[in-house]
Design brief:
RNA-binding, KH_dom_type_1_sf, three-stranded antiparallel sheet, 48 helices, 50% helix, repeat, KH_dom_type_1
Amino acid sequence: MDQTLLLSKLTARLTTLQNDRSEAQASITAATAQLQSLFKTVPKRPTHSPSLLLSKITALDTRQNTTSLTLNAEKKLLKEKQSFKDSLRLHEKCDQHQLTIDALKSQITDLRLSLPSKESAITELRKSVQKIRLAESLACPFSSLITTTVPCSTPNLSKVIGKGGSNIKKIENTCTVRCDVKGEEEVIEIVGSEESCDKARSLIESITLSETLTIPISPAVSGFLLDKTRSELLKEIREWGVEVRIEKGGLEVRGIPSDLESFKEKFSSLDLIVSYMTLTNPSMGILIGKSGATIKRLSKSSGVQINVSRSKENDNVEVIGKSMDVERCISEIEVLIIEMEVITESEDLPLPIRNLLLLNSGEAIKRIQKTSGCYLKVSGSPKPEASNSKIDYKGLRAEVDSAKSLVLEEIKRYTSSEVIVNVSFDALPAVVGKGGQIVKQLRQAYGVVVDIDFDVGSVKVQSFDGDKRNEAVKAIEEIKRVNHVTLVKVGGTVLPVLLGAPGKGTRAKIMDEMKVRIDVVQESKDVKLRGEKEKVEEAEKVIAAFLEDNYMEVFQLSQEDVGVLVSGKESSINKILSAKHSVEIFLKREQNTLNIRGKKPGVTACLADLKKEIFGSDDIAVTDLKIGDSKGTVIGKGGSQIKEFEKTHSVRIQLLDSTSCIRVRGPPPNVAAALKAVTLLIANQKISVNVPVNESTLKNLGHKGQLTKAILNKNVTPSVKTDSESGDKILRLRGYADDVDEVKRMLDESAGKPLKVKVKMEGETLRKIGDVGMPHWSRIKERCNVKLDIERGDSEGLVVSGKRVGVADALLQVYGYFGFSLSEEFGTFELDASTLARCFTPGDLVIIGDASGVKISKDYTTSQLLLFATSESSEKGSCEERLAKAKDLVSEKIGEWSKMNFVMNVERWCLSVLVGKKGATINGIRDEAGVEIDVDQSSSTVTIKASSSAAQEGEMSGEERINKAKSIIDKLIEDNRVYSEILDLPEDSQGTFIGKGGANIKAIQEGLKDVSFDLIEGGTKVEIKGAEESVVAGRERVEAWREEFEAKNATLEMRVVSVGILVGPKGETIRGLENENGVKIQVLKNDGGDGDSELPNVVIRGERGSVEKVKVLIDAMMVQEEERLDQRRKEWNEQKEREREEYKEKQAKGEEKKKEGEDDDDDDDEEEEGRKTVESQYAAVPVGAGENSSYASTLSKAARKRLNKKNRALVDSSKPLDPGEKGGDLLNFLKSSKDDGRVEGEVIVGAKADIPSMLNSDPVVPPPPGLGFTPNSKEKGKKKKYGGVEKVVENENNDENDSDGDENNYFVSRSGFSVRM
């Protein structure tokens, strides 16, 4: 089909569909407007359903037909029946209205459902029409039109579009396509023929795939490329297939990657460089030439750019271009400057040459100037000691070179008549002589020129007379012979020996006999020998022999090592090594150095042995052990202990004061044994520590104090001392260090300080467990409420501090973590507290640890031994094996200890029997059984320990002795067993039970033998102890006394309905009851405030009969009050019922008149007056709205809901309400109206006092005055705002009923209503 015809048909069809869509949308709009109108006019459907209305009409018909009615009643019935029929018709109207709405909704739905299909057809037609028109605009057939997309990132879209769309328009015009940029999809859509699309795609990809390359070039090269004279080069660069921009900082090139690489290679091949030259001002003038002719010529011929910059001192030249051109240009510049530059040069002249050139008024100088054309100038002093003579040349370079050649010829002629004598530097002073005297003598005697070169050590002799020259040389050689110098290496260690007393004979032989001089070289501490060569060589041999016999080494010592070398006098290390190697050893204490002198082999061997003694070797071990504060113990009195160690183990022990350590030297096994012995000594050492204590602690430190017993249980002996300086009391603790530390923790804890426990471990183990800020440590701190810290230094470990319970829990968790993270290196051994304290001494732990290669410590907090397998003892097996061995050794130790120790629990009364008078009994048991016995009153335990010093040791084993002591104690307890019984005492009866001066308890005890009465548990109980018969009798007496006490001190709790009636006016009633009956009556304030609490509110105390009598009297008072209130409630309900009936009749009359349409002003006035009468009985502001409201605020939200629901039900049912019931106040009668009231907090505030609308039909009247509801006198004279009206409360009389106002204000108190009527 023709493309034009197809376009016209599609356009017509599109127009038709658009018209249909417009008509459908117009129909929807009209139907929607009609529907909105129907919604606005929806008739209000009656409340009752049609079925209910029909049933009511039927009921009314039946009532009309079966009941004799008055005229008014029948009219009322007919009106009511007609209203029900009207309601039925209204139901039919509502139904018809709803049917119309539903029909419109269905019509709108159908129209809306047809719109999507129309929209879809229109969209498709539009696309087809647009495609045909596009094909026509692109001049290609519709069938060959295709659409393709080219991906293009967002940054490249702007490049494809170009400024103002120039790039994309150019692509469209060039390729005859249509391009659509879709930024969100990051593609470019191309529409056109296949060939055109491919061409456009290529152009777009050339833009999107192009990259920017920056080739850094200097600003000078940028200027070179932009120079107009280099336009051909720039044109060539721009034809390399990329876009090129020249910037100051570089060359910016844009194109596809392959073209960029090609451009980069081509540009690099140009090899453009910048070269710099610095010229003097004259040279710059040569380069520039007249009017710049020279520099222009060089620039043009070389193809480079030459830039110059001038200054006062030097001028700079910048040459830019290809490297070959730049090099060629620079060469031409240099040649040009060299050829044309006037130069000035200087040369140093030896004094003889200077004098030669100036001879005969400078004849030689003048000749050279004339021949070369160069200007010459000779300067300097003619004196022999002068050394600054020089010659200056000035002229063109060729002239200067010619003059230099002529001067050189003169020098050669001079040097041919010169002889050089080499003299050592040491002999040169002898040739010169003092003040140059020898040189002057040579010059005068032989008429020669003598020039000494101190730099190279030579003497030049010049003379054109050969004989004189030779004689002078011979004289100089003679001086050399008698001044031969040789340097002998001595060194700083031996030099003092050579110059001192040991070298006196050697020096005399050399200086006096051989006539050789000895000079000292201070810098190198060597000597120089000066004299005849043969004598010097002989003297050198003498010194060599001296040095061989006096070889010396200096050994630097530390301060600690000085003492170990000299201690022992004749048996000191110094004396032993000196005799062994035949050397002399000198100690210099000021420098802490040791000088060893003798033959070299002996000195070397002595030094080697000395180093072994100091630093150790395979045969000699040197080990340090930290002893801390145990210095005195290790040394012993007068050093006896340390000498004993040295003698026993054949080692040397050195005390290091600076580090509180000892250093042990000797064979490795001996050193190990000595260290073990020292460690055991320190571990078994008991220390004394002074601890400041307060008065409270001192009180607990009595002979029988619990704190003293707890300290003794830790194997620590306490004693109280007085500080000699301050006079304060201090507690001295003596025991093992770990036990003393535990007691100090106990004291800190008793003083309210946090418990602080340190788990000692090595630094390597600390590093393994990590920092305390790590998550697992943080969790332990948070769970147990403790602090964790890591202490470094001499005593490393993990510190846990806090309350004891938290610390114990934290330590258990820490050990659990150690068991996980250090499973092969850590273990624990749980023990009871007594075994932990008594079984293991520190020495025992050291022995077990040394045998197993494990470090063991006590933890009193968790009653455990902590075992760490150290890396130092790896030779004793793996960590797991060492831990297992340590646990086996611990178990063996416990088994051995158990055989020699026994702990038995006894009753408290047994302790005094066991001890006896002044300890006589227990001492007898100790002597008889040969054991040690400790009694702990705090825990009621007796510890029996077999004593090695007992008399029966040779006859009985420790276990047999313990069993004997047990049998003696058991028999003693059985023979002295005391019966006891504990009885409860009445509350607050302790003083009465004891009596004044103990009279009562003595009376109870009278006649009873061997019995005691002790108050325990704060005096709430009495413990009777003694013989069985006496205890039984004592119990009967105490029970009788207790019954008598309870009868005289009876207590009764009860609840009364009216506390006010009980108290009476000004408390007269309650005081009368107390005085007449001898009791005490207490009123409790525990009422919940809702009046329905079952808690007692009155307590009566006194004799039992009087208490019961008062209770009967109070009950009678409450019954009488209840009867009075019941009567008042009954009268109030009757009045309420009468008022309700009157209100109903008036309301019925009003309704009849309204139905009949009568306009009776009298009736309306009467109805309004009735309404006012009813309204006047209620407050515009509900009861409790004032600040005295407390009732509603005491109820929970759920309770208020239940209360309101109950009140509404009561009002609707017209049931008389008992004011005494829960919720019986007027507040709970009121019902909130959606239109006329709002809820504020727990009370209802009415905007209008429309009581009939609030109560629907039944009015509620307030209670009459005098029903126990008293007005609130505190409100008198105050301004209150009720229902928007501010009023002043004035009349507060309980008997008056003021009904003049339109409102009555009600307030709620705890006991009832405060009413203003």
